[in-house]
Design brief:
This protein has 505 residues and is α/β, with parallel strands linked by helices. The protein has 2 domains: 169 residues, 2-Layer Sandwich (Ribosomal Protein S5, domain 2), CATH 3.30.230.10; 300 residues, 3-Layer(aba) Sandwich (Rossmann fold), CATH 3.40.50.300. Helix 19 packs parallel to helix 21 and helix 20 crosses helix 21. The longest helix is centred in the C-terminal third of the chain and has 18 residues. The termini are far apart. It is elongated, with a radius of gyration of 28 Å. Helix content is 36%, strand content 16%. The chain is built from 21 helices and 16 strands. The mean pLDDT is 89. Helix 5 links the parallel strand 8 and strand 9. The chain has a 5-stranded parallel β-sheet.
């Protein structure tokens, strides 16, 4: 009889969990029994691991092998446990002494030929291993660069099961991961490309400074899409913790580039209007995967031609916009993905899109029906609702270098965010868009009644909801942050209200 155990890492949604893989090898009819809530792909590991061990030059034990995955109540999914299963079986039969493993955790899928193949989600797995105290980890060679993004963990790359066996048995060193450094993201579209549209540019700057949601209405060619595409260029770069969080989501989705690097630029997702609900919020059969909503985490989700999206798809955004999380229930369990985004909507004034009363062929009922696809509860969560006018000849034919660049605007945005962070020090948030109504409506941040009188009137008349009241206050605070002042006054609140009501200027 023999007993052995090694460490591995499991993944449920975005959350990694340390897993102990233990094996008991005893006399009896040859069999391999797995326990600890394995899924189908993990149950199929029996045949993969057997073939991999034989093709690695080792003998398969003709005994009864029982393998348990701890904690037993945690669902275990995927093929990333294969390498740990092979090593613990060889150790349980006495063919390997795990002292040579040095307490390293094992991640990797095995091919029938003994090759160690890459798996998705290595970055959150290594993060979870580091948080549980693991300081050494062995991963597939193709995942080594991604795993090395996690600081404080010694990563070793394995291309074959044979390499791992020789490392444990004879201390033959495994290769180090390739050196990975932060590569400067390629410069995206610049705000200087947008001609005219001063109101739209100001709304975009407010959205960046306060992390507010934004809706842009206007005729085709007014610059709605151009403005939205340039929002990431005026957002501050992600810090280390945020970059790891965003990169982990992309790792699970298999969306990292061939040479992995930390994602420092806030992501930008622009799904087509034919996208389904699962494509947007996450889904899939059996086990959910992140959708565009989570891939835009800590960045921008842009829905162009928003009324053409399915009504149920649009309404699925309402809860994540409030909670910052999307929870997807499937047959194999419930998965939660982060979704703290800035939502940007763009829409024409009507279905024909001409944008003027002379050429428009839509009736007043058709116009209302078109925009009513953007439900009231969804639009109530949008802080800035701006109507853009067509670009005039003076702006279109003017000097192209007269517009401010993204770099110039970014400096003001960074300064405004620093001012907000100092104000909300001690709170769970650092940006105005996340300030709670309880804080905004109580001293020391409660504004005088003369500043909020118009909001109170609209609240009593029912033209402004309680949520809308708080969101106007948030925008007013962002206005003064950009202007370098301390407290909003009546004019700031009025301007924030105009920006919310979607009035053209």
């Amino acid at each position: 009889m023999g007993y052995a155990r090694v460490r591995a890492v499991g993944l449920v949604g975005l959350e990694g969990h340390a897993v102990t893989v233990e094996a008991h090898v005893a006399a009896g009819l040859p069999a391999l029994v797995l326990s600890g809530l394995p899924d189908t792909s993990l149950n199929e590991a029996r045949d993969r691991v057997r073939a991999a061990i034989v093709n690695a030059g080792e003998k398969w034990p003709q005994r009864r092998i029982t393998i348990n995955l701890l904690p037993a109540e945690l669902p275990k999914r995927g093929s990333g446990f294969d390498l740990a299963l092979a090593v613990v079986i060889l150790a349980g039969t006495g063919m390997l002494n795990l002292g040579g493993l040095g307490g390293a955790a094992l991640i990797g899928e095995l091919g029938l030929d003994g090759q160690v193949r890459p798996v998705r989600g290595v970055l959150p797995m290594v993060l979870a291993a580091a948080q549980s105290g693991v300081r050494r980890i062995i991963v597939p060679a193709e995942n080594a660069a991604e795993a090395s993004l996690v600081p404080g963990v010694q990563v070793r790359a394995a291309a074959t099961l044979r390499q791992v066996i020789e490392f444990v048995r004879a201390s033959v060193p495994l290769p180090d991961p390739p050196t990975v450094s932060d590569i400067e993201d390629a410069a995206g579209p610049d705000l200087s490309d947008v001609l005219g549209q001063e109101r739209g540019r100001f709304a975009l700057e407010l959205a960046a400074a306060g992390q507010h949601h934004l809706a842009l209405f206007g005729p085709p060619g007014a610059g709605k899409t151009m403005l939205a595409q340039r929002l990431p260029s005026i957002l501050p770069p992600l810090d280390d913790a945020a970059a790891l969080e965003v990169t982990a989501v992309h790792s699970i989705a298999g969306a990292l580039p061939p040479v992995p690097q930390l994602i420092r630029r806030p992501p930008f997702q622009a799904p087509h209007h034919t996208a389904s609900g699962p494509a947007l919020v996450g889904g899939g059969t059996g086990l959910a995967r992140p959708g565009s909503l989570s891939l835009a985490h800590l960045g921008v989700l842009f829905l162009d031609e928003a009324p053409h999206f399915g009504v149920s798809v649009l309404n699925a955004l309402r809860q994540p916009l409030e909670d910052g999380w999307v929870t997807v229930a499937r047959s194999q369990g419930c998965t939660r993905f982060p979704a703290r985004i800035q939502l940007v909507l763009a829409a024409n004034p009507c279905a024909c899109g001409t944008g003027n009363d002379v050429s428009c062929t839509c009736s007043s009922v058709a116009r209302r029906t078109y925009l009513n696809r953007l439900s009231g509860p969804l639009m109530d969560r949008i802080d800035l609702q701006v109507t853009l006018k067509p670009v005039g000849a003076a702006a279109l034919l003017g000097q192209p270098d007269s517009q401010e660049s993204s770099a110039q605007v970014l400096q003001r945005v960074i300064a405004a965010r620093q001012a907000a962070a100092e104000r909300w020090a001690g709170q769970e948030y650092s940006v105005n868009a996340r300030a709670t109504g309880a804080v905004l409506r109580c001293p020391p941040f409660r504004l005088p009644r003369v500043a909020t009188a118009e909001l109170a009137k609209r609240l009593d008349r029912g033209t402004l909801s309680a949520r809308g009241y708080d969101r106007v206050l948030r925008v007013a605070w962002t206005i003064v942050d950009l202007d370098g002042r301390i407290t909003p006054d009546k004019d700031d609140v009025s301007e924030a209200l105009d920006l919310r009501m979607g009035e053209a200027a």
